[in-house]
Amino acid sequence: MYPKAYIDYLVYFHSFRDYFECHEALEEHWKQEGKANKVWVGLIQLAVAMYHHRRGNFKGANKQLMGAIKILKEEKGKLSELGINETKLMDLLYAKQIEIKKQLPYYSLSIPLNDPTVIEYCKKNSQEKGRSWGEKNIKVSIELIDKHKLRDRSQIIEERKQQLNRKRNR
């Protein structure tokens, strides 16, 4: 069975194209798991790269995608365990990297899944959330495109203050 956070990531990635929520869902899982599984970081960076590309931030998109490619190459085998076709994914990422370097317009990318079980979980989860699995180039609102600017950051600011205080008190 696959972690719920991973299924959520895939649903946000393929059915909503909400890359910000992909990041949120998988980052929490990665932290709870103890940060040892780098494949989660690679997938998070892929979502962040897509977020930046859609916003026209080519520098940020390229940096994140380079990080994702590096990690996902190092984590060979773990993608297959997640039902992902590693070869196809890496080919897509290299092609996306060229597009970003050429500053070509954004279009959505689908992670090539080869496990019918993960696909069925994702289809069911998407339907429960009122979406169709795998829709390409969904029209998205400005709220989704600029989600990082519009969210409530009070909890993040408070956490950073606490971290700073802990550093000062050492």
TrEMBL record:
Transmembrane segments: none annotated. Signal peptide: none annotated. Pfam families: DUF309. InterPro entries: DUF309, TTHA0068_sf. Coiled coil: none annotated. This is DUF309 domain-containing protein. It comes from Anaerobacillus arseniciselenatis.
